[in-house]
Amino acid sequence: MKKALISVYDKTGIVEFAKELENLGYGIISTGGTYKKLIDAGLKVEEVTEVTNFPECLDGRVKTLNPYIHCGILYRRDLEEDKDFVKKMNISDIDIIVNNLYPFEEYVNDPSKTHEEIIEKIDIGGPSMIRAAAKNYKFVTVIMDPSDFDLVLKELKENKETSLKTREYLAGKVFNYTAYYDSLIAAYFNKKEGIDFPEYYTKGYKKISSLRYGENPHQKAAFYKESKVEEGSLVSAKQLHGKELSFNNINDANGALETLKMFTEKPTIVAVKHTNPCGVGSADTLAEAFRKARDCDDQSIFGGIIASNREIDAETAEEMRDIFLEVIMAPSYTEEAFKILTDKKKNRRILTIENITNNEYTSKDMKKVLSGMILQDRDTELFEDFECVTDRKPTEKEIEDLKFGWKVVKNCKSNATLLAKDSATVGIGLGSVNRFFTVERSVKMAGDKAKGAVLASDAFFPFTDSVELLAKQGVTAIIQPGGSVADEDVIKCCNEHNIAMIFTHMRHFRH
């Protein structure tokens, strides 16, 4: 008689599956709560202690960790010496393993659970069994996902056994899952011990969905989430309207959120194109904030992403109505605003994100490199104080705009500079190999608005040429990290043109 060992925490569909196996002539072995459930359902079940001749012990910590179980799973059916050994020891074949693990993930993400409770949900016997069965997939079928019950039953009914291809597929699922499971345990201990950069770094992600394609149509892609979904993230968003998000939508939308999280005090709108801000505005009303963001670059906003830190009202929605916007994100929408934004716009993606300005995340910033990865803290810090290095001190209004510009420029691709005026971006230069080029781009975009504006730069000025250009355009103040060997020359140039300059002593490269 072929045998199946069934021991599951998640008992979804298990009685029906076990009955089908019984009808197909399988003997059932089981443990603990699963054994009781199957017996109560009228199945004939052999308790695991009858196989092992050893009682479950240590409060259930040891049940299936036994040679009579693992030899029955692991022995190679095509190797005479293995067959002779299990026959000599009177060990029965175990042909199917059905097991899913203790809910460590559920417990580790529950703040009410104690350390001791979390530790007890680290499964030992389950991973040992399913890994053993997966290793011996040539002969053994392993199921850890109830969604695979139908596949296995179909093949058993048609061919009396599962195909090698199916067993290999199921084995692969096991190793993917146990790696994910172990990554959560490792992350828990790293967090508990305060280890930010462990010697061996593992990070588990769950697939949310396949994407139609990646950055380009010839690239495959999928969307994944971390075990614990933080508020204010794109993963936590609820889509209310529009077609499915694409790879670029997700990437750009995340860029918009990163910038938006810098602004909490006033109604603010962030417009993003290709992950970079193309316009940001803050104002007393959201509609005015949107107009400021739009007017920075009313061409680049076409096909862009919008993020709002306040509920979108009808007036703001009217401003957005006739602009082609790929994605709009906000904490909420008034009923009238939602109607306006969706009218004749079946593909426009409308997302709600609770606590959209939350910026307290424990996750790291990861960048893939060929054959490796680089890992760092997220760049969430802003300067606590600044140093005025010029003869003229910035006015209160200039300081307000300098701080505004600094919050935006840190989220632009380096080299990056931008001009800000009246809590709005008026010219943005980014992604250049030369800082002077970005300054040129900023003032060209701003046009007449450059007069009376301030400039924010993500890194220092290596030469005075940028200051000379800004002076000609009527820019009145500059914020930059400082730290160049040319700092004295740059400061002198600012003094000659009556430009106020402050150093933050903090750089914000973004590559």
From TrEMBL:
Source organism phylogeny: Bacteria, Bacillati, Bacillota, Clostridia, Eubacteriales
Catalytic activity from the UniProt record: IMP + H2O = 5-formamido-1-(5-phospho-D-ribosyl)imidazole-4-carboxamide; (6R)-10-formyltetrahydrofolate + 5-amino-1-(5-phospho-beta-D-ribosyl)imidazole-4-carboxamide = 5-formamido-1-(5-phospho-D-ribosyl)imidazole-4-carboxamide + (6S)-5,6,7,8-tetrahydrofolate
Keywords: Hydrolase, Multifunctional enzyme, Purine biosynthesis, Transferase
The organism of origin for this protein: Fenollaria massiliensis
Known pathway: Purine metabolism; IMP biosynthesis via de novo pathway; IMP from 5-formamido-1-(5-phospho-D-ribosyl)imidazole-4-carboxamide: step 1/1; Purine metabolism; IMP biosynthesis via de novo pathway; 5-formamido-1-(5-phospho-D-ribosyl)imidazole-4-carboxamide from 5-amino-1-(5-phospho-D-ribosyl)imidazole-4-carboxamide (10-formyl THF route): step 1/1
Gene: purH
Similarity annotation: Belongs to the PurH family.
UniProt protein name: Bifunctional purine biosynthesis protein PurH
Domain MGS-like residues, every copy: 1-144
Enzyme Commission code: 2.1.2.3, 3.5.4.10
